[in-house]
Write a structure and sequence with these properties.
single chain; alpha/beta; seven-stranded mixed β-sheet; 24% helix
């Protein structure tokens, strides 16, 4: 029997989110029904809603969900009704990257999460008045009071931690943290530079502050965000609207350049500046996603000092171990996500979108 729930539907590219009753399909063997408590709003949601990606619309987005399990399919293991869960991306669980502990690089990641809008077998998870809607977004489509969630998107978490405080762990936060911990892996005395002080960038700053890195530089054009970055662990800040990035970093590092750079802006000009700011054997992690087809020119000889440029999806995290560890850090006060979060009632999703686009909210979280 299907379940009727209230969801935020995007009718077409560029249209606003509108609340409507939709029907969830019955849970499959490896699916669960989750009552949503909170869900983060991410730039990826806005990009898809604008029509920038070929996701089937009308559809239901949302991919930073957190809630309480209400029912599970007969083949689901390790999760039971009543469990508190954070929802993240899904994956096939069978390809080489999944088996190797890198599910963010699953062979079927794009259709399962970002552009398919359906289960792997082609069936729909959400409908309205008998017509299929785009759903299964990151295996969850959590802009709804209830979500039909793929088993591999479910991460059981400590029930003592408020779900609205950890919903962003499913995407933005684990991306920023994973860029530092899983790719850069700072050693004692490292210099880490974070380009962009939004939710992902500030998560990277907080992650760097929990490593042996001794110089943590946040770069942005918004003074208030740079001040917050200082409070969250940055040792230096650079206002990109007032100073040349490469020259400023050279002054901070004594001309040695950065050991690691996290690029979160999606601006190819900024990416090039980040590469130029690397020191010998330094690594730049590309997190920000410009429009498809974007290219960046590089000085090839400048790379011969051992510089590396690495693309990243979702922090290259193995969610079942990574997200519970982040929850423990939030609970202990060592990962102060509350400094990034602004909460909005679910019905105010369009106000949250406006505030995010205007830069008034770093990480909007919708509550149910």
């Amino acid at each position: 029997m299907s379940i009727t729930t209230r969801a935020a539907v995007v009718e077409s590219g560029g249209a606003p989110f509108t609340l409507a009753d939709v029907q969830l399909d019955e849970p499959g063997p490896h699916e669960a029904v989750v009552r949503m408590v909170a869900t983060g709003l991410c730039h990826t949601d806005l990009g898809v809603a604008s029509g920038g990606l070929p996701f089937p619309l009308p559809g239901v987005l949302g991919h930073e969900g957190a809630g309480v399990v209400e029912a599970v399919g007969p083949a689901v293991t390790g999760i039971a009704p009543g469990d508190h869960v954070v929802l993240s991306f899904t994956s096939c669980g069978e390809c080489g990257n999944c088996n190797g502990g890198h599910p963010a690089y699953c062979a079927t990641w794009l259709p399962l999460n970002l552009i398919g809008g359906r289960r792997a077998d082609g069936s729909s998870t959400i409908s309205r008045d008998g017509e299929a809607l785009g759903g299964h977004f990151f295996g969850q489509s959590s802009f709804a009071e209830r979500a039909l969630v793929d088993e591999r998107s479910l991460v059981k978490v400590d029930p003592d931690v408020p779900l609205e405080s950890i919903a962003p762990l499913g995407c933005g936060v684990q991306t920023g943290v994973g860029a530092v911990w899983n790719v850069l892996k700072p050693v004692t005395g490292s210099t880490i530079v974070v380009l962009g002080a939004g939710a992902v960038g500030l998560s990277a700053v907080m992650a760097a502050a929990l490593t042996p890195a001794t110089t943590i530089v946040a770069v942005d054009r918004v003074g208030e965000r740079l001040s917050l970055a200082r409070e969250l662990g940055a040792t230096h800040t650079i206002n990109a609207g007032e100073a040349d990035l490469v020259q400023a970093l050279a002054a901070i590092t004594g001309g040695q350049g950065a050991d690691g750079v996290v690029e979160t802006t999606g601006n190819v000009t900024v990416l090039r500046q980040g590469v130029d700011a690397l020191g010998a054997r330094g690594t730049l992690v590309v997190v920000g996603a410009p429009p498809f087809g974007s290219e960046v020119a590089l000085d090839v000889n400048g790379l011969l000092g051992g510089k590396r440029i690495v693309g990243l999806t979702l922090g290259d995290a193995e969610t079942q171990s990574f997200i519970p560890a982040l929850v423990d850090l939030v609970k202990a006060g060592r990962l102060p996500l509350d400094r990034l979060i602004s909460t909005y009632p679910f019905a105010d999703i369009d106000q949250a979108v406006r505030d995010m686009r205007a830069g008034k909210a770093i990480k909007p979280v919708l509550t149910f």
